[in-house]
Fold these 3 entries.
Entry 1:
Amino acid sequence: MVRNLSNTYSIVGEWIGELRDVQLQADRMRFRRNLERIGEICALEISTRLAYTTKEVQTPLGTATCKSLAEQPVLATILRAGLPLHYGLLNVFDKADNAFVSAYRKHRLDGSFDISLEYISCPDLDNRVVVISDPMIATGSSLVKTIQVLREEGAPKEIHVVSAIACTVGIEFVKRAEPNVTIWCGDIDEELTAKGYIVPGLGDAGDLAFGPKVQA
């Protein structure tokens, strides 16, 4: 299932526009905050799909029956670009467990690349709801490899992916490899370059959020 937040008119469209705007991208704090806010909106949407219990809460004037999450999700992020989205999710699911994966493109001289994954830290994932933050789903290769590696650590009952911008090519790749994953994205672009970059996209989300890197 794919949920494109831009299919409805909301403030998310303005945040996506600011993320894409080359003039506003110079403001790294605003760029990170817009990603964070998209994470918060997606977390609220995902929260409506989760299981709840009721409990009695004592107020100063009596007792109230309130809803409470039956269990906390696991929030997983792909370092480093996924961190602002992750913080947005964590702002909402503030008691959640967390997982971190370093997956990145390792380029060859001919322009092709492999996905290198060198680090993972996560809790028990068996029968848990896992929410993965990855700001750009381009080819989908790094996301699929991340999901596969997380599955080696346990068997989640649900996997959600939160992204700012996804490409149709990447979405189809993820759906073929992981048909039961739900993708939540701020917008969807149709074009992918020969080198695997989304057009019009927004550029390199990691560099725009945290500064350029020396590694190619």
Entry 2:
Amino acid sequence: MTALLGPGVTLLQQTACGAWMVAAVLMWDLAVAALLGYSRVQRTLNQYLFVVERLAGAVLIAFGVGIMVHMLI
């Protein structure tokens, strides 16, 4: 946060940014939970679950390889 707001950030600014971030993440999580409650969305996700799992695994592997390469260089 100090990289964006500078080293002289006040406690009020920090609190406001923290509250905003909590609210934004909470709204996102509630929206995802509401969508997952629909049976049509659940059926669609079940059809593509294999692909989603494989893509998530590939991303995690890429992060791991990237970290290893960064540590070796």
Entry 3:
Amino acid sequence: MEKNIIEVKNIKTGEVLEFTGQNVVAKYLSRVYGKKIYAGAVASAIRQDIPYKKEWQINFIKNANKKICDYCGKEYTSNRAKQRFCSDTCREEYHAGKKEDQR
């Protein structure tokens, strides 16, 4: 499963926030404005060049979680922040190599 990021920038303050989905952005904006903001409004704002409520620039960043494997150097997509290897095989080979070096 590929993970995408929605970047929300406050034009007035310069604050940049990253969210994992339209619903999360909608909840955040609902708290900011004190009224219900729907995910559909966020989706519409992503497709427009005009800032949402003249204050928020909302952009969709596809596959923001691409990483490079620490063992083989292959590019892969991760759903975990701390993941370092593209596969269990690479992880096991890396740690087996470290054990060999310690002997």
